[in-house]
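Subject: Interface between my chains keeps coming out wrong

I've been trying for a while to get a sensible model of this assembly. When I model each chain on its own everything looks fine, but I need the whole thing in one frame so I can look at the contacts. Pasting all components below, labels as-is. Any help appreciated, I'm running out of ideas.
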Amino acid sequence: MNFYLAAVMLGLGFVALGFGIFISMRIFNIPDITTDGSYTLGGVVSAIILVKYNSVPVAITASIVAGILSGSITGFIHTKLKVNALLAGILVMTALYSVNLSLMGRSNIPLINIPVIYDWLSFIGDTVARQLSILMLITFCLILFLSSLLRTDFGIAMRATGNSEVMVSAMGIDTSKMKIIGLAISNGLMALSGSLITQYQGFADINMGIGIIILGLGSVMIGETLMSLLKIQSISGRLFGVIIGTIFFRLILAFVLSLGIDPNLLKLITALIVLIVVCLPNLRKVSN
Amino acid sequence: MIELTNISKTFNAGTPQEVRALININLNISNEEFIVIVGANGSGKSSLLNAIAGTIIPDSGKINIEGNEVTDWKDFRRSKWIARIFQDPFKGTASELSIIDNFRLAAIRTKRKSLSIGINSKFKEMVRERIALLGLGLEDKLEQSIGTLSGGQRQALTLIMAVMDDAKILLLDEPSAALDPKTSEIIMQKADQIIKEFKLTSILITHNLKDVASYGSRVILMKEGTIASDIKGEERSKMTIKDFQEWFL
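Reply #2:
Try treating it as a single job with all components included. I did that and got this:
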């Protein structure tokens, strides 16, 4: 059972990543793949600060800021230098690999005997219960923040930007600025996720971000499929779907691993699951 | 109100696909004037409208709106005066957003999009009342995504959206071209009514000569990037649909 509980917790750690992908891919309709880099950046920055300064709030804040920065750079390259969004993301992601490596000075940083965010709420004696409470608290704050943001006038403008750019410009909105802000928020969330996972697993690694975008995308799509089955369209409902999707995805992976499949095949299985989730609605249409 | 001085725009300059869309256009549009622009495809009608809207920036010349030189201003900055209706009903609205979200954006077209929640019960009531005037029964579907509506319904809504916030200028690019004849007529009448009620300075592009004869105080014929005829006042009011038909013979 603890095995699946760990999967749920890992899932909660990835919720911020799922929200980030939801914002870039769904709200803004931009296939941003800076993710692999900004997620790792978040982990790397947190690990360095935790080791050097021992401050969890500073580590998390710095990670988010670093993510925001990398997202803004992708946004700038895409909107101002007019580079295709996919390419802009690949460029920044590739550049971030070197950045992460030089920041760390080696390929990984362990967090041994260093207080992390999961040591907060020390009045909860049980480690697992404490970790779970903290992750749930963060998830709750995130959904509250995002569902409020997306319902404000600014949030409506964000949502419209990915939907009808012509209309949005006619409504007095600078779409370039909007997209840069969107990618900044999105990558800030991804970096937050990188920080949370790094603190959870106790180390930052240069390769921790490989293929992470597929994980996030799969989670978002599983959540969407579920919510569309339940006919839920509201913004908070869709965000909640991302949470469910992320946890569900980790549970599927945990189940597959429990069948005794070689962990080296994990990425292949992840890709296959996402492929199935992506194709399922299309296959259903064909058979109809 | 709007002054265009020596406006020229060439697309794909220096290539075999070079198109001289606008050639030395001079045009003065006064307050509350309702201009109808006609012309063959490729005559520069849309380029002229887009130059005023700011979606294309001219190669040379000057554009003034209400005494401000706006030549280099992008469309989103000019939106403080200009509301637009597009030929494609899908362009004027954000499909996946609800009717009420679309109206909220329209209501703050000239304002800052702030981090406060603007859709409250008072706002909803105001939108409901305005939509009810259309008589399409859409006032009870505020939460429905606007993409589920027909082209005609969406175009009707964009007309009301245009005047949700202060507007001085209304640009209509073949607003009814994608609609069936009956809906098209309703949309044109509604547009005319709104233009008069809100005293808007308007420019309409159309291929429908019946509309040319029925609406507007001034008519402009465009040919190969230039203004071939510009008729207003008494001369315009004397013209009939036959006269306009002759332009295209």
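Reply #3:
Confirming on my end. Strands of chain A lie at 108-110, 203-205.
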